[in-house]
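dumping the sequnces here before i forget
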Amino acid sequence: MKYVIQVNEGPYNHEASTSALNFVRAALDAGHEVFRVFFYHDGVNNGTRYTTPPQDDLNIVNTWSELASKHELDLVVCVAAAQRRGIVDEGEQSRNGKDGNNIAPGFRISGLGQLIEGCVQADRLMVFGD
Amino acid sequence: MPILHTVNKSPFERNSLDSAISHALKGSSVMLYEDGVYGAMKGTASADKISGAMKDVSFYVLGPDLKARGIDESKLIDGIKVVDYSDFVQLTVDNDKVSAWT
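..and the predicted 3d for all of it:
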């Protein structure tokens, strides 16, 4: 099966990001393909590398980055939601004249079309969060 | 065309469990996870809704999320199946579509 995962909550809203991580791991373990993970609404907050939780906390951002690197996951952050919440990559930095960027490794910023294309390509869409 | 309906909010906070049950057709499944697992407990105001729907719809609850909340399996409505994440994935395979109620 080919999955698209939509994450609508940040790491500290409820537990949607953790649930999505666990689901993605279980799907990959079972031999399924995760075509794309799309971070929407507050879910874009999963994609900032400036997140610095206490050392004994799970670092959800790093966990996504590590999982992406290990399994070549496509982690896409919604551009409109990202702009509102200050999630910036190099392209957005120069386009909007910002003094820095904060996108985490393995994430990229793109548009809602990526979610739609994912839904067309995939067998299942899993929505996590509000 | 069976659908897996997922519910991640407590029935005492939102009406997503009600929505899932009223939309679930015969042969469909409801998956309770995150705070949705509170809906799986017996003796609550929402327990009869699940029991009543059970002849047509299968109910599942995510074990790790029960454990995270200290809910013992002996407290669950009879007939609800406790599953893990790999079962959750398999349920999304076995059903044709997944509908998330939040």
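The mean pLDDT of chain A is 98.
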